[in-house]
Amino acid sequence: MKLAYTLATLTTLFTAPAWADGNWTNTAGVQGVYGDYSGSVQRDSVSGYGAALTSEYRDKGGLTVMLNHTDVQMKAGNADIDQNSLFTSGRLYSHPGGGTGVLTTRLDVHAIDNNDATKDTDEVMAYAPQISYLSADKRRYVDIGYAYSDYRNNLSVDQWTPTAGFLLGQNDWLQVRGWFIEPSNPARAQGKDSTSAVEGKLTHWFGPTKPLGLNNLRLSLLAGERIYAVDQDAGAVSNLSDIQRGSLSLGGEWKFGKTGSAIAMLGREQNRNATIGDDYDLTYGYLWISGQW
Question: What is the pTM of this model?
Fold first, then answer.
């Protein structure tokens, strides 16, 4: 199952290539989350923790590896779910047109293992290539992403995610992404043969006067429906068949010296299990701490 807490982490790591005086720049971090389900007839709470390492080689490319462990505490009569997930992402950078911007070719691979007795959400593999372009002045960004997810018990999922980003003024970045998802088997997707959604993310950087020491503030909003989504920013797969029907989150980042960073986030998302007519919300808090060398 996908956890919303990873939404902050890889957005930070993948925003743009990181340059350093030496050949390599490395970023390592740990994260944790706790969430409470309200209105759910099956789920009680969720907790998890994970670690990620990103290495960038000058302006040539990079690699990210992330491990996560998730515990979903269920209500009486339902078995708890323990899940481990491995995420790897490789990137190559090029500069077409004589350095007019950065073209990034990226491939993500997800592997998920859990104790789901039905095997419907166990042994999931997902492959997600993406091509993106960031202008030389870093004011414009576009990408096109695709994901193919392979599930047991007669299900595969195709996903397309076109994205555009813009710098508004000097201190605000807006990213808008479309989500177009097609499960191969509607019987495994609550009768859905497709879902669509739009997601907006706004980041505001503060100047020399930083309220509460904040370096930046982040707001994210999702409208529409997603099912079995593969999130390129979060590095996570939503391997449950429940339909995500919208979400809202607010987070902030603090910088410590030249190498330290912390991100805290609060969020809420709406979900529906149409099979049993269960509409419920997940409210969560998330923390990420990282260092760079």
Answer: 0.91
